[in-house]
Structures are given as structure tokens and as C-alpha cells.
Amino acid sequence: MTPPPARRRRTAEGGTPAHNLPRRGAVRRAQAITTYGVGSLIAVDHESFIVSGLDHAEDSWRADEAPRIHERRLARLLDVSYFRLPPASDDGSKDGMRGRRFPLMHSCPECTELQRHRDFNPPQGRSVCGTCEVELVPSRFVVACAAGHLGEFPYWHWVHRSTERGAVATGQCTGKLMLRSSGRTSSLRSILVSCTCEQAPEVSMEGSFRKNALKDLGLKCQGTRPWLGTSAPAVECGLPLRTLQRGSSAVWQPVLKSALSIPPWSDGRADPLAEHWEKLRKHKDRAAVEGYLDAIFDDEWPISLDEVMTLLDAEREEDPDGEAGPSFDHRYRALRNKEYERLRSGNDESEHSRDEQFICETPLGDQGVLAPLGVTGPMLVKKLREVRALKAFTRLADPESTTDAKEMPLSGSPMRWLPAMEVRGEGVFLRLDEDRLGPWEKAAAVAARTERMRTAHQRVLEERAGDPSLVVPSPATPRMVLLHTLAHVLINEWSLEAGYPAAALRERLYAADDMAGVLIYTATSDSAGSLGGLVAQGEPELLDRTVRSAVHRAEWCSSDPLCMETEASGTGGANLAACHACVMLPETSCEHNNILLDRALLVGTPEEPALGFFGAALAP
Asked: Among 207, 209, 560, 574, which is disulfide-ready with 457 (CB 3.0 to 4.6 Å)?
């Protein structure tokens, strides 16, 4: 059978409509949130583009291919009215994500000229040298700053950095830049750049990635935002510039925020009052709400007054101090607190219609078998819906550790919506026994080991923040590191025993003074995430065997004794006994980008077996 044509995503140069270009690149909906979102670079055939901002997307994203989705709690947290799915266009679609050519600097392998794309006089719709008719090569190098700006690599300044004569020193030489490879190696030393003005020697790209390489040339960030085109003129930023490979993961990292749909927002209906909640929240009593609904709806109300009051009361529970009081972090923690409460209390399927999007039930087996492990309260999450929204993006930083000041918005003007993905799945929720967890996390050896990780992580946060007033505290606590590492070993175990690849499972941690739980779940954009295989693993007898097997497996790593005895590992030394041979996961599965992990807190060390929370329960 001939396979169906792949779904495609189209790009354009200079903001022209995507369907006017013959060049097309395939991007899935989920990738438009996690990999190729606004401000990211995407390769299409031999060309390179940057995904355009959302300033005009509301008009260009067709409603039938980029429909609205609603998740009231997350929309309120991010201060938007709704979310939209990225376009899912096929070959006959008139929709698609917009893009602009970037970087503009290209080189011709035949004549070796290095200049802006348009200066090669390419034929309409093609990216070839007008003279040699050879495919042009986009610049391999770009520059970025920690504030999220992106620009062209300054080849002219790099070549002329040793000259101090007249017009050359002021950037006004009349020569042309040339780029060639010596062919000896694939290193930067073999990439040679020169200028036909002959007032500067040919130089290699070696050294261009040094931290202060561009600072030594007197160059600072000019605040360029090529994904916004001419609608957002550059304003000098002044931060140091870093040289990056065009395809480096440091060029673009998404800032994703997510929420589970839980009652009373999970009944499966579209939100009929999505445009009115901001005004409804201003009315404090039932009579005022009733008067407002009477004013906007001439005939029958879309939902009852009792339902409206229930939803308003639920919002106020998450935000008791009012909109102006709590910070973003406070409201995000409140959102997690409500999810934790609902996961603990459950939501039986028998009490709801088939449209209910959150079904969480107590397993039928004897939960007492888990008591020796210190595990309690397992719940079978038979149905869940998660909305993941692209809030912003960062460059040169870890998206989980960046402050708001480092986040780059998706448009040049305020937006009423954000792009998001709606995913459905199933999962298993479990908690740790507070009576055992409290004394364990207060032990001096446990606290000292976690403090080493917290200090290293805090140092990384301070280096990335730049401004001390913008530094966020590290979330590393004994409880958080234990839950995080436990989630990783369970995901690895279930990838072996339940037939799920590790990349198909995700963790959701609930670690705070009043929370000690973890949800491991599947979540995909189709029905494959709800086949029942993971829920079956939550029955107490099977869960007991799984936890014991996972922790036993964590006692040994193929990199031991180096892995267990290391003084620091991971980004900035924020891990201890953790590596890719034991507990690390695909980054899509981890909430914290594979940092703040230590399997010694699960099983102890040969010298201090009491460090491990599960050590005593698993002792022979």
C-alpha cells in the first residue's frame, strides 16, 4: 500500500504567506510547541528559516486547522483568554506556520563568496548563486545573548579584528568577504574567512566560540529580533554576545507551562463563558453575577448560575488573595496544590458522564503491601487531559531555571492567546508516607548531601541570572530530589516491564512541605496514550514488585564506582549519583532537564546505607 503523503509545514521569507513558497518543511503540531516554536531556527531542504512571531497569527491561522482550546486554570495563570492549536496543514491546506529567512548571510561553495542572500541575485523561489547556479549554504554561525536576542555572526569584524587603518577600522572597506574550507579537518581551524580588500589576513573561525571572543572585538548585543521582522525595531541591549552553531540546542529553548484538567473544569465541554471570566471575577456575590449574565445573554444562559458560582469559587480557592496579590510562582504552586488534592481524593468514573476528562480511582487491591516501602495512597488515573502551552522562550539558558526577565515573548505586542497542545493519557499516582519521610529528610547526612546539590544549582542560577535581584531559589530539597529520582527509576522500570518506551512516559512532581507525591503518566495527542497498560501497573501488588525491582536496579550502575562516588555531575554539578547509564531519562520525560537527581537517596551508599529512603525496606 502506498503511504499517505506526509503532513507539511510551510515557511516563507520576509513574512510572505507560507503557501506562496514552493519550499516546504514537515513539522508536527507538537514540534511547534517543543522544538520549532516561535523564534526557533528550522532547516528546510538546504535553507534555514526562523519561525515568525504571533503578531499576525490570529488572522492567518485558520480556525478549522488551528482551533481554540480552553483550560481555564492555565489561561488565568498565563493571563490569556484561550489557547490555539498550531496549524495542522496538509498538502491541500492554505494554512501553515510563517517563517523568515535567517541567517541572511550565505556562502557559495563554488565561488566562495560570503554575503547576504539577496546579494547573490538568486532566481525567484530558489536559493542558488545567481552566477554559479550552485545551492547556497546558510551561515553555520549565529550570535545570541542571554536576554533572547539573535543576530548574524559579525564576519567582517572577525576578519578585520587586527587592522587599525582608516576606513577599514570604521567598517567601510570596499572588499568582499570570502569563506572556504581547507579540507584538512572538520574543525573550526579549517573554516577560513578572508576579505578581498587585502588589508586583513585570512583568518580561521578558531576561537570564535570563546566566552569573550566577541566582547574583545568591542561588540555588544544590538537587540535584534528577526522573528518579528520590521514590526519590532532593534533597541541596543548591551549584553555580551555568544557565538553558537545554527543547529545548537542553546539557540532556542521553550518555556512550557502545563496544567491537568480537573473538576470542575474537566467536564469535556467547551467553555461557553471564555470571553467573560475576567469581568465575572469582579462580581463578588451571586446577585451581581446573575445581573451580569442577564445583561449579556438575552435568552437562555449557556450554563446554570450554580455552575458559574462553583467555577468562580474554585478559582478563588486557588487565589485567595485576589489577582493583584500573589506572584506568578505562588499561583503556579496553587495550581499544583489543587491537582495534588484532586489526585488524592479521586474522581470515580461511575459518578460522571463519558465526557469527563479526569477519572481517578482507588485500586481494588490491598494497599497494606506497600507500607513496608513507605509508599501510600496509590491512585489509578484512568483518564487525564493535559494542556501544554508555549509561554515564551529563552536562549543560552535552562528553561526550568530562567527568570521571567530572561524570557522572550512570542510577539511584539500583548496577546490574548498562546499556542498550546492538548494531550490525553492515563497514569499512576503515588505518595510517600509522611511519618517516614519527615524523620528521613531531617537526618544530617541526607540534608548535607542535598545541600551540596542545592548550592551547585543555586550557583548556576546566579550565573545565568546576571542581576542578583532576579535570582530564583533552587527547588532542591531532600523530598524533591527523592521524589524526582524515584520517578525516574519507575519510568525506566515501566519502560522494561510495561512495554512503554521511556520517552512515552512523563513525570509530574508534587514536592513541597505539604505535598509528597508523583504522577507518572502517558500523554499523547492521539488515543495511544489511553490503552490501559500503565493504569494496570498501579494495582498495589504489582506496584510493590515494581518499586522493589526499580530500587534494586538503582543499587548498581555500569559506571560504578565512579557514578556513586562522584562529588558532582550533571549541569553545573547539580547531580550526584546519576548518569545516563542509571537514572537519566529523555528530556521530554523530565520536568527538570535531568538535574537534581541522586540515587544514593534511594538506596544509600556503601559507606552510609542509611542515606537511602528505601534502604531498610530492601535490606536482606
From this structure: 574
